[in-house]
Design a protein that fits this description.
Radius of gyration: 27 Å
Largest sheet: 8 strands, mixed
Strand content: 15-25%
Shape: elongated
Helix content: 25-40%
Number of domains: 2
CATH superfamily of the largest domain: Bira Bifunctional Protein, Domain 2
Oligomer: single chain
Length: about 425
């Protein structure tokens, strides 16, 4: 969401930001609606002032025993016109809000311009992509070979893009989530939260999922939305609140199931666990001071990277271009892990600084220490990490020639000391 004043003050700059996003200019439309809205408001206020003046004149006339009928008619006509103008103002404001709600956040100046992922920029790499002296299997072949990853039975239960994990493989998924939560809470100071998985319209609106991406979500018959990411409830915990400056940054993490219809990803990654309707993710959310959000963004990305470092997985960090960022983001780093089964890097985390874009939608503010008034907070979110994709990375990078999986040392305490995952494990 945007501050109308900033668009009034610099419409060309606003449109330049949209152009970098591949969007058409919107300031002429917005400013026309804004002008009409303010004109209706101003006229309605003038009529109110005139009616107050007439009321005093009526009182004076009646006090002298005079006839105030003409003045009373004038008041009635003024009230009717004010009501009409008020309705016009409300309609115009609703139109402005609807237009602004569908416009993506403007990119930060350092974000590279481009239409798609081809224009993303490499920031850094960690580790060396693993190579094997035997034929490499992907996670599907490995999981099914272990007898603990079942897409056919999941399809019988729920249809495509679901999986059933059993035995030690199910425990390995749980171990990954617990490991990530412990790391983020113990080492990085995030507060663990167990949030609702169903949210209202206004909650999904606050983080930018609605109205534009309704088709990508699952909606219940009662009008609730299944969360696509814990970013939605975690960020909205400060919706409508005024925080003390001393409470910033507020860092939260949650391990939840996430649900996505994948309506915009038809035909993509149909094999295996890469892109599913239901998946687990450990989310990181920060509510930050505007002056500190850039540093917080770097910190959050580093926290997500540390998960992969502890697991001994090679990865790279990419700065997304303007055409590849999410709707609410002004700057995003993608962390891509090496997957031997695909012989490529694949996204495992996106860490985004949203500036005050979501805060304006949620009306989330803070009161500066010793200052007057309030300011909007900045919000940040990132995967720390996507649990299913991390499971894929562990299976493919730690596979052995006989199809068994070596358990990374960091996960062994969560697996009861198990070091090798075998078909009978």
């Amino acid at each position: 969401m945007f501050d109308l004043k900033t668009i009034r003050d610099d419409p060309e700059g606003f449109d330049r930001g949209l152009a970098r996003r591949g969007q058409a200019p919107r300031s002429p439309e917005i400013l026309t609606l804004d002008r009409d809205w303010r004109a209706a408001q101003t006229k309605a206020e003038q009529l109110q002032a005139e009616r107050n003046k007439l009321a005093r004149e009526i009182g004076a006339v009646k006090a002298k025993g005079g006839d105030a009928e003409a003045l009373l008619r004038q008041v009635a006509e003024s009230k009717t016109e004010e009501t009409r103008l008020g309705a016009d103002a409300d309609r115009l404001k609703a139109e402005i809000d609807a237009v602004l709600a569908a416009i993506p956040n403007l990119p930060a100046a350092e974000v590279p311009e481009g239409r798609d992922e081809k224009a993303n920029q490499l920031v850094r790499t960690y580790g060396t992509p693993k190579r094997f002296d035997f034929p490499v299997k992907d996670h599907v072949a490995l999981g099914e070979g272990l007898g603990q990853m079942d897409f056919a039975r999941a399809g019988k239960l729920s249809g495509a893009r679901f999986v059933v994990l059993t035995g030690a493989l199910a425990r390995l998924e749980r171990a990954l989530g617990a490991f990530m939560l412990d790391l983020h809470t113990r080492d990085f100071g995030y507060t663990e939260v167990s949030p609702p998985l169903l949210v209202r319209d206004e909650t999904a609106f606050g983080t930018g999922q609605l109205p534009k991406f309704a088709e990508d979500l699952f909606r219940t018959t009662t009008g609730m939305w299944l969360i696509p990411t814990a970013e939605v409830p975690l960020t909205n915990l400060v919706s409508g609140e005024i925080l003390d400056e001393t409470a910033l940054p507020r860092r939260m993490t949650a391990w939840t199931a996430c649900f996505r219809s994948e309506a915009g990803a038809a035909g993509k990654d149909t094999r295996g666990m890469i892109r599913q309707h239901q998946f687990a993710k450990v989310e990181l959310v920060s509510i930050a001071h505007p002056d500190q959000s850039a540093a917080e963004h770097e910190r959050m990305t580093g926290c997500a990277e540390e998960v992969l470092k502890r697991l001994g997985l090679a990865y790279r960090v990419m700065l997304l271009c303007t055409g590849d960022m999410g709707f609410s983001a002004q700057k995003t780093y993608d962390i891509e892990v090496w997957l031997p089964g695909q012989d490529t890097y694949r996204e495992i985390s996106s860490c985004s600084n949203c500036g005050d874009f979501q805060a304006r939608r949620m009306n989330a503010r803070f009161r500066p220490a010793g200052g007057k008034g309030t300011r909007f907070v900045h919000t940040l979110n990132g995967s720390g990490l996507a649990v299913g994709r991390t499971l894929i990375a562990v299976l493919e990078n730690y596979q052995q020639a006989d199809g068994s999986i070596a358990i990374p040392e960091a996960l062994q305490p969560y697996m009861g000391g198990l070091q090798i995952l075998r078909r009978d494990g």
